[in-house]
Design a protein that fits this description.
Length: 610
């Protein structure tokens, strides 16, 4: 028996050695044969979350016609006046075909016994030798209007984001990451400056006051310290300022639409993001330098002036079609908001009517919104099925099935093949070039998003749905015990600039110009000051006090103090017993001491934000 076991082990070793030397074409066929045999055992990836049998209300898509490379207005909106389809070519303007995507793990599925086994070397998580000493490359994946729990790793959501889930397993997911102002353009100025809007003063897209301190922004500091710097996608400020765009070695700013034309072909903006990012990485960058690539997705932001709002790609329409998006418990809480929330004039209420005021409309809008998220993540990929069901590593899947990149799994297990999506493709390109473990990858978003909570749509206000956003960091310096963990400290968007500079071994500007901290202090073995346990939130009035009134807040884990300064209205919420923020405690006498203390602390932090 021992001899027989030894012989079997020898045969198995021989098979594994043969697998390594097999050509990609041969591997394709074997992988596809296994896939076909296993489909009958397959269980839908989201079976625990999906409410099957829900009626799809998806309607036909409209195309938002735009032409690439112009400054034509796409209509005014409360996210900052005119959304523009503006693409200004930077260094390296040659176009490349859409790249094939690589996705990582989907939501956990049942493992199927197969001859293929996971790659036990786990090269994706190995730290590069000397990575603590070497300045890292940086990839910032920065999406739009995407709140903290719209990610597959959160058990409360329907949306599927297997790539981001896998990225979190290779790094850390920060569950209490927040923005200091919840609106697109201010968050971007804050991202690059590391400052509150009270300091950088850019309270409107046409007011790019933060450009006055451009020399202290992280793109300029990286450029001055030998980095190749690239920007792809949404910028939301003046793109013609030469001081700004000359900083970038690769400059591709555009946003405000979902579909346009490129090289005579219809293309989705997320596909454009992917093409341009991969072009920079593979062809346009100076490979003798470290690089910083910012990929700023416009999706899943709506096309505000269009009735349809959200325009996913045709390939995604099967996603969520047979599922029902749960309506939030607080959706009917409009009447609990302060008296100055005007039914006709309040912008968040107006957008609620556009998107959510009937059950069918709610399902239609939310499914298309989730489809845009899934397109960014690359939910529907062949790699998703192989990873979740067959327990294969990402690199193994790429070797096995390079010909396939898109798979829609529906109730009857139909398969559709199409193109990939940006983050997975970027990850794959880094891996292909052998620099994945020399690169800090950050995924986050500019602000949260109401899904009809409080009878609202949009963002702006200090409620949890508006201020909390996802943050995933994959850092090759990360010690093994921190990998695949959650962190619930208050990290903020003012921290990102300092964190990026830290990874590049570039000192932040002196004198406390940047107001954030290096998030790496939370996972590297450093002696650092205790982390914050509260923070100040602010949002200036926009258009009019009845449209988007000013707001500010002192945010803690247990309580939140809100101030509406235009009306001198205060609110207090117990987030432990009332996480939906429905019961205002400001007039409860038993909380008088707490209110006085939080009011005083709020005023102090407001001054510190200046």
């Amino acid at each position: 028996e021992e001899e027989e076991e030894e012989e079997n082990r020898g045969v198995e070793d021989s098979k594994q050695e043969e697998e390594k030397t097999r050509t990609p074409k041969e591997i394709d066929m074997k992988a596809l044969n296994r896939l076909g045999k296993s489909l009958t055992q397959f269980r839908t990836v989201s079976s625990q979350k999906a409410n099957m049998g829900g009626k799809s209300s998806a309607k036909g898509m409209k195309e938002a016609e735009s032409s690439e490379g112009n400054n034509e207005s796409n209509g005014d909106n409360a996210d900052g006046g005119e959304e523009t389809n503006d693409e200004k070519a930077g260094t390296g303007t040659a176009e490349v075909p859409p790249a094939t995507g690589e996705s990582n793990k989907a939501k956990e599925g049942r493992k199927i016994d197969m001859t293929e086994q996971p790659n036990e070397e786990q090269g994706d998580q190995d730290k590069t030798e000397g990575s603590e000493k070497k300045p890292l490359n940086i990839v910032l994946l920065y999406a739009d209007d995407w709140r903290h729990n719209a990610i597959g790793a959160d058990p409360a959501t329907l949306v599927r984001t297997p790539f981001l889930d896998q990225l979190a397993k290779e790094g850390i997911r920060f569950t209490y990451n927040c923005v200091t102002t919840s609106v697109c353009w201010i968050s971007r100025a804050t991202l690059y400056t590391g400052q509150y809007v009270s300091r950088h003063k850019s309270d409107y897209p046409q007011n790019a006051a933060w450009y006055n301190g451009w020399q202290h922004t992280f793109p300029k500091l990286l450029k001055d310290n030998g980095y190749s710097v690239a920007h792809v996608g949404k910028w939301h400020f003046d793109t013609q300022n030469s001081t700004v765009y000359k900083t970038f070695d690769y400059w591709k700013p555009y946003y405000g639409f979902h579909f346009t034309q490129r090289n005579g072909q219809k293309i989705h903006i997320t596909q454009m993001n992917e093409e341009d990012a991969v072009h920079f990485l593979s062809k346009a960058r100076d490979k003798t330098k470290p690089f910083m690539l910012g990929v700023c997705f416009f999706a899943p932001h709506s096309v505000d002036h269009e009735e349809e709002q959200f325009f996913p790609q045709e390939k995604s329409m099967e996603l969520y079609a047979n599922e029902t998006v749960e309506v939030p418990e607080s959706a009917d809480a409009w009447n609990k908001l302060p008296y100055f929330f005007d039914e006709q004039r309040n912008e968040a209420r107006r957008r609620w009517r556009m998107r959510f005021d009937t059950p069918d409309k709610y399902q239609h809008m939310m499914k298309n919104y989730y489809r845009l998220i899934s397109e960014i993540d690359e939910t529907s990929s062949t790699e998703t099925l192989l990873l979740s069901e067959f327990a294969l590593s990402p690199s193994r899947v790429c070797a096995c099935v390079p010909a396939l990149s898109y798979l829609v799994l529906t109730k009857d297990l139909r398969i559709c093949v199409d193109a990939g999506a940006a983050p997975g493709v970027i990850y794959k390109e880094l891996e292909k070039q052998g620099i994945l473990n020399e690169t800090l990858i950050i995924f986050t978003t500019d602000n949260g998003f109401f899904h009809s909570e409080h009878g609202l749509a949009g963002k702006w206000y200090p409620h949890q749905e508006s201020i909390r956003v996802p943050l995933v960091i994959r850092d090759p310096r990360m010690p093994p015990e921190k990998v695949n963990t959650l962190n619930d400290d208050f990290t903020l968007n003012i921290d990102l600039a300092t964190t990026i500079l830290g990874a590049a071994q570039v000192e932040p500007p002196p004198g406390g110009i940047m107001q954030g901290r290096d998030i790496a202090d939370l996972y590297l073995d450093r002696k650092a000051e205790p982390w914050r346990t509260e923070f100040f939130y602010e949002h200036p009035v926009h258009l009019h006090t009845t449209v988007i009134p000013a707001s500010s807040a002192l945010v803690r884990k247990d309580y939140k103090y809100m101030l509406w300064p235009d009306y001198q209205v205060e609110q207090l919420f117990d987030l432990t017993s009332d996480p939906l923020e429905l019961e205002d405690l400001i007039n409860k006498t038993k909380h008088k001491d707490l209110i006085d203390e939080m009011r005083s602390r709020h005023s102090k932090l407001a001054k510190m934000a200046l």
